[in-house]
């Protein structure tokens, strides 16, 4: 069904082809689409309605019932404007006048109005008199006083009295339009000015200000006609609040000059340009500021200017010779600088007008500019040394980038195939940013925003054939990144910035902001660039800048890197000792409580909170002496505690187990772990263990005392035997037992490093993590250390055993120690039930 509708619409003429506009919250007309309008009875709306179907897919853009009390206005012969239930304003802009007249007649037929009028009625507000609330047409017409000098006071009072009543405003509008009253008032103005009748001129000012407040397009068309607009401007010169009259006519007629940079053959276009400029001057300069009036009091005047701009852009685009001629002259080497400057300023104004277009129309607009060589023209202008053309070119470039950064990126990639780095558009933009002569760097800030848009991966598209992100970023880091960072590298050759004036500091801050953006969004490319150029070291030189915002920018760059929590960056920072300048700056700042102090403490706090082990170790081992005196925050003390805990985990088991670790084998591992956990008050899930009774506690204490005495006697006995004779192998046969363990090498029990006497490792040192490194003491369940081992034994057995094995243990058939072991009380701790 929709397909058939679209075919019927395409086959019909363009009489009913319209654009639908909606006045948004910012009082700007928003284009909601193009379609075909019709009027029909809609069942769900219970009445005749206006329907607009999209010309692209046939969907309904508008479905609005023609209500008897809705005020419709016909403006400029091709516009119908109305308010929808006091919620928002709508407008239909017809392609042809005949189509507008046809729909207008149907609206008037439904409302029972005369189609010859250009307005049906105004909305009736609650404040209206009761007798006219339901039948506004019953209100009597307003009889205008005779247009004479002696009646000016009476006329002015009449205009003031009707502004508060919508019905009387409507009646006044009809009277003004029907009697040609405005032109009669302008004749009185000439008389008063000739007679120097100041009171009469002041009355005329109040009258014409009230005419503007009637907010009627039909009246504006009379006021802004070529033969009346300067008289209207003359009336508005005599503001009673001014001591002497203004000189607006002199400015518009003599001071202002219209520069026709390209000859305009279309007379309607030329008149529309003149009218738009003069009306905008009246709105922005002559009339009082909007705060004096009620909201939306001059909304129709704003709409008048808006639609004029839309028409101007459309007429210029339709001219097949105008824009090609403009760009041809702009790119011609023979064009003198003065004329080229006028061309650029015109193009900037043209792009400004294009902002009134809707996205789909703006897209075609900028594509046409691009096809005509707008970006190439911008390159030419930026290469020139003209202080007026460059800002205009930057504004044009900004409009294009904001609307379609992908189009600009595509252009840059294409020109990169046959141009040197110095001639690339993006490099010219960066150089313009770097060389901005404005002390406040206003242009540089604008250009930084443009560059950020171009390198932002969020607005880059990925297609089946290519990925714009990888392609363009690779190009940017290869061909343009060195241009962006050149001022930073040049200023950080020494241990402190070479130049530290305000303008240089501003530029360094902008570069740091862009680099910080790159760290956040360009993971791979910026990482390689930072490492290969040692960029962070050079950035940290700026911590010694006398401008706090530069130092904070440098610190923010480092904070963004650390915030990624990538060990690749952490190793780079540790190996380069890059915390040294940060600690020095922190020490230099002293006890001052400022933003730099807080930012640095936050950096260290982040490392502590996120438990970045490599950075924590580096800070404590190399910089704690400079930081431990800072006690007004607990950050550095907590870092030291975390470091100590980390070292404890690396170096081995808890201290209470050192005496017992040598005799606990794999078979008692489970009991040993449970014994260690049972000493805690609570387990992980929050359940409390039942405490041991006093009898069991005393029993275990006596058992541990006997074990300790036995171990000391055993150690002394072994030492005396080893001095008398070399060690002997007592067993007749050995059994190799490989016990796989899930324990880490830091386990205090049965680690290979705790069994120095194990076969296969006769002279190997204990594990570096063992707390008993270098103590050659055999375990109770192993044979004494032998002086040699099998020649075929591979030394790598030790490392292999550390990863997956408990150890290789010989169980002798005859051992003189077995009898003594039988006398040792059972060292296992009885399990406690909960």
UniProtKB/TrEMBL annotation:
Keyword Nuclease: no
Subcellular localization: Nucleus
Serine/threonine-protein phosphatase 4 regulatory subunit 3-like central domain mapped to chain residues: 154-645
UniProt feature, compositional bias: Polar residues: 741-750
Family matches, as InterPro entries: ARM-type_fold (IPR016024), EVH1_PP4R3 (IPR055236), P4R3-like_central_dom (IPR006887), PH-like_dom_sf (IPR011993), PP4R3-like (IPR051137)
GO molecular function, a single term: protein phosphatase activator activity
Biased composition (Acidic residues): 811-824
Protein name, entry field: Serine/threonine-protein phosphatase 4 regulatory subunit 3
């Amino acid at each position: 069904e929709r397909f058939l509708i679209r075919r019927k619409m395409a086959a019909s003429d363009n009489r009913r082809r319209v654009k639908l506009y909606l006045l948004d919250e910012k009082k700007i007309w928003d284009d909601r689409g193009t379609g075909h309008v019709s009027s029909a009875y809609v069942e769900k709306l219970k009445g005749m309605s206006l329907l607009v179907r999209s010309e692209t897919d046939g969907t309904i853009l508008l479905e609005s019932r023609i209500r008897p009390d809705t005020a419709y206005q016909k403006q400029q012969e091709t516009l119908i404007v109305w308010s929808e239930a006091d919620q928002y304003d709508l407008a239909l802009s017809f392609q042809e006048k005949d189509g507008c007249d046809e729909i207008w007649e149907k609206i008037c037929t439904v409302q029972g109005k005369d189609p010859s009028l250009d307005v049906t009625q105004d909305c009736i507000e609650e404040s209206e008199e009761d007798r006219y609330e339901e039948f506004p047409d019953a209100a009597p017409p307003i009889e205008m006083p005779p247009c004479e000098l002696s009646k000016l006071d009476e006329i002015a009072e009449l205009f003031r009295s009707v502004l508060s009543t919508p019905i009387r405003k409507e009646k006044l509008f009809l009277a003004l339009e029907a009697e040609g009253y405005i032109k009669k008032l302008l004749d009185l103005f000439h008389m008063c000015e000739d007679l120097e009748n100041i009171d009469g001129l002041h009355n005329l000012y109040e009258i014409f200000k009230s005419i503007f407040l009637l907010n009627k397009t039909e009246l504006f068309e009379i006021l802004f006609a070529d033969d009346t607009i300067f008289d209207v401007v003359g009336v508005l010169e005599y503001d009673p609040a001014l001591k002497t009259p203004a000189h607006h006519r002199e400015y518009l007629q003599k001071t202002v000059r219209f520069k026709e940079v390209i000859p305009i053959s279309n007379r309607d276009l030329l008149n529309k340009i003149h009218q738009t400029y003069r009306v905008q001057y009246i709105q922005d300069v002559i009339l009082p500021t909007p705060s004096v009036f009620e909201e939306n009091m001059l909304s129709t005047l704003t709409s008048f200017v808006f639609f004029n701009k839309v028409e101007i852009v459309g007429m210029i685009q339709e001219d097949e010779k105008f824009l090609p001629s403009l760009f041809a002259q702009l790119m011609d080497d023979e064009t003198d600088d003065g004329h080229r400057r006028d061309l650029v300023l015109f193009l900037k104004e043209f792009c400004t007008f294009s902002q009134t277009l809707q996205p789909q129309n703006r897209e075609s607009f900028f594509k046409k500019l691009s096809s005509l060589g707008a970006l190439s023209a911008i390159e030419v202008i930026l290469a020139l040394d003209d202080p007026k053309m460059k800002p205009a070119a930057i504004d044009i470039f900004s409009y294009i980038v904001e609307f379609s950064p992908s189009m600009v990126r595509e252009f840059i990639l294409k020109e990169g195939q046959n141009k040197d780095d110095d001639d690339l558009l993006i490099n010219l933009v960066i150089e313009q940013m770097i060389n901005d002569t404005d002390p406040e760097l206003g242009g540089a800030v604008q250009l930084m925003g443009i560059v950020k848009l171009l390198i932002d991966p969020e607005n880059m598209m990925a297609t089946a054939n290519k990925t714009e992100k990888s392609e363009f970023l690779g190009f940017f880091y290869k061909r343009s990144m060195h241009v962006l960072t050149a001022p930073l590298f040049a200023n950080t050759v020494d241990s402190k910035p070479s130049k530290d004036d305000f303008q240089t500091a501003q530029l360094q801050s902008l570069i740091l902001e862009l680099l910080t953006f790159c760290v956040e969004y360009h993971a791979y490319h910026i990482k390689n660039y930072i490492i290969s150029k040692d960029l962070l070291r050079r950035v940290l030189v700026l911590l010694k800048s006398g401008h706090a915002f530069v130092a904070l920018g440098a610190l923010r760059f480092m904070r963004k890197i650390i915030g990624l929590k990538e060990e690749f960056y952490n190793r780079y920072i540790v190996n380069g000792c890059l915390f040294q300048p940060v600690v020095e700056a922190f020490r230099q700042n002293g006890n001052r409580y400022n933003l730099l102090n807080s930012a640095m403490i936050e950096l260290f706090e982040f490392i502590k909170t996120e438990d970045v082990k490599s950075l924590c170790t580096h800070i404590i081992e190399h910089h704690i002496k400079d930081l431990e005196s800072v006690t007004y925050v607990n950050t550095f003390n907590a870092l030291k505690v975390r470091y100590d805990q980390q070292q404890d985990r690396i170096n081995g088991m808890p201290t209470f187990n050192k005496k017992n670790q040598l005799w606990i084998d794999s078979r008692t591992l489970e009991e040993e772990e449970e014994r260690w956990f049972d000493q805690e008050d609570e387990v992980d899930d929050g359940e409390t263990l039942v405490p041991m009774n006093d009898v069991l506690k005393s029993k275990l204490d006596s058992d541990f005392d006997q074990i300790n005495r036995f171990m000391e006697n055993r150690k002394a006995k072994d030492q005396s035997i080893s001095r008398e004779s070399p060690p002997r192998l007592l067993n007749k046969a050995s059994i190799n037992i490989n016990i796989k363990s899930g324990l880490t090498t830091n386990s205090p029990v049965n680690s290979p490093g705790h069994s120095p006497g194990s076969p296969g490792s006769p002279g190997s040192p204990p594990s570096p993590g063992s707390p008993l490194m270098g103590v050659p003491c055999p375990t109770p369940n192993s044979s004494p250390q032998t002086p040699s081992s099998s020649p075929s034994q591979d030394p790598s057995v030790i490392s292999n055993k550390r990863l997956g094995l408990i150890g290789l243990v010989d169980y002798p058939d005859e051992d003189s120690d077995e009898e003594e072991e039988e006398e040792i009380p059972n060292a296992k701790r009885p399990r406690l039930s909960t």
